[in-house]
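Bench log. Compound arrived from synthesis this morning; before running ITC I wanted a structural hypothesis for how adenosine-5'-diphosphate sits in the protein. Inputs:
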Amino acid sequence: MPTSSPALTIDSSAAYAPGTNVSVMVPAPMPTALTYQVPDGMTVRAGSIVKIPLGKRMVLGTVWGESTDAVNPKRLKPIETVMDAPPIKAPLRGFIDWVADWTLSAPGMVARMVTRGEELMQRDPPITAVRRAGPEPDRMTPARLKVLETMRETGSGDQAYTKSGLADLAGVSTAVIDGLVKAGTLETLTVQREPGRIVPDPDFDPRTLTVGQADAVETLITAQSDKDLNVSLLEGVTGSGKTEVYFEAVAHTLRQDRQALILLPEIALTATLLDRFAERFGAMPGEWHSGITPKTRRQVWRGVAEGKVRVVIGARSALYLPFEDLGLIVIDEEHEAAYKQEEWVSYNARDMAIVRARFEQAQVILASATPSVETRINARLGRYRHVPLPARYASRPLPSLAAIDLRRTPPERGTWLAPPLIEAVQDTLERGEQSLLFLNRRGYAPLTLCRTCGHRFECTMCSAWLVQHRFTATLNCHHCGHVEPMPKVCPECGNADTLVPSGPGVERIAEEVETRFPDARTLVLSSDMTGGPKRLKAELDAVAAGEVDIVVGTQLVAKGHNFPGLTLVGVVDADIGFGQGDPRAVERTFQLLTQVTGRAGRAEKPGIGLIQTHMPDHPVLQALLAHDTEKFYALEEAARQRAHLPPFVRFIAVIASGSDVAAVKAYANHLKAISRPPDTIDVLGPVDAPLAMLRGRHRQRLLVRGPRGRETQAFVKSWLAKADKTRGDLRIDVDVDPQSFV
Ligand code: ADP
Ligand code: ZN
């Protein structure tokens, strides 16, 4: 987590005089802004979003300030146009500079995450409306009378209506309206349509809080006037009411007349939270993620900038929305790896949210039942305020957890559910309650092979097996998205009917469930069961309504949903995450298993969690079974410290990639040779990245390990600046605080 404080940015809202040279951030991987000239008759300010020529293209850029660079007047180009959008404010500009510096990325590429594209700045086309303009018509008909009466009843004299809207209201055809226009009683006009907005009301429907919840709210609200410590960790088991509590902090922010942002790790969770928000605040918040329509995108972006949208619920990219006055950022499930973006600019939205909040003088609430180890340490050291929520709401007990030792009670050959788990599902069915079987693997089988020749199906573009999907009868690469039809014969030896699946995915577990419990209503929930967020929401609602007996699901079902009838959670394979090379694998497994077993027994009935494993004595699993989170954090912190792993050190991954394997290796070796790190910093590698090929690009990884603070970034910056220019399609990607080690 970044600790140095942001530099002060002065906002001069004065316009630059024509002829002034200004620096403009352009969407290109360049280290600094470029200089352009303000032409005659144009009003440009710091933060103005402008269209400018870049090479042969026209691109969108952002004015950063006056330029002092010496530019050859012959090459100096004028700004083409100023976009019809509010200028990017000083706190957001300061934030962009900070992110670029911290993540070692080009500032223009970070700025692009704010301005995105030109279509965002377009306004909806004006629409034609009608309003009262003259006396009643000479020829009055019953239909015409209806229109005029409707207008008298609903409007205040000169109000404008859309033609079809008015026709609908009055229950007549639009021809009647046309007639009234012709008669001079109504006139037409064009209006800019503003989305109708109901503002969230902090007092719409507040909950009665428990004592513990009220204390937490009190602490969070008092925190909002604390200038020094602006991050709070809201920690409480699933079902303790974290959402209800941070809603009260949002209400407080609204009362202060400031905006709030709630970030979620997954789109799949937004629909449920939007509904809950609307129940609490009587209005929909702005919604922002990759699944919204371009129109919603335009409206939310502008609405946020103009201060009309007061609350946004969204995915990590919402962090770059141009809020007018942001007072609170909530990061729900703060430990989630999905907050890390790894394309273009690698950043962790949680860490960057804390920085943005500092620029905006806003507060941050990190909410989680299983905080990340980093966050937990920061809370213990007093860098974050620790706000614990002691118990589950309404004293619902935590599920009782037990391990199923797969060495002693293994499943039957070719199946995956051990006898004790099958029995528990049976009991649950008989009681009329629901079971969830959890396996974090999409598809039918992670590997397909030929029984005759041993051929294994691998992606040609990635070093990864193709995953067999039965619903779609395809082999899919989960890394690059490549899909091919499931072949009938082995492409290697030509034998028919010799291809067999190896290992289970959720679809295969579902198949076993359907065989064992043919009368039960079974549903697979996995992010690739297409149909989009709407279908998923419908399916989640169906589960909540008790229309399903057994759910087989991936991590998609692990979080954020309330299933009142669910009393049994079975974890099919708890060992997937243990004993991998990834330093965060143990933490992630603990978090995921805590979350998924936390789905059991959320309503009146107590829940049970059964965990299939070959390592029932693993200390982390023991801590999990005992609900002893303190124990887990103590174990994990000690292990990280011993092994010199984050957060005790800073890692920066430097990945060289390209289509020519020899060139990639040569370049990685060159980087290593010129690195000459100081004593405090190590450069490890180069080695094949765990995914040695991805989307057809070969990948070599160097890992920089150094102290926390700015030193390690400073080293990488000066090191890479010394490197030879990359040729051909060779590329260097830098990832500060890498989350995954692919
Ligand atoms: P968490 O976010 O910690 O998992 P939630 O806020 O989702 O917990 O609360 C779990 C369930 O308990 C939800 O259905 C929520 O509406 C309910 N709940 C929690 N606190 C209250 C309260 N004070 N009044 C009414 N319902 C509550
Ligand atoms: Zn692939």
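What the model suggests: The longest strand covers residues 682-694. The chain has 19 helices and 32 strands.
ITC booked for Thursday regardless.
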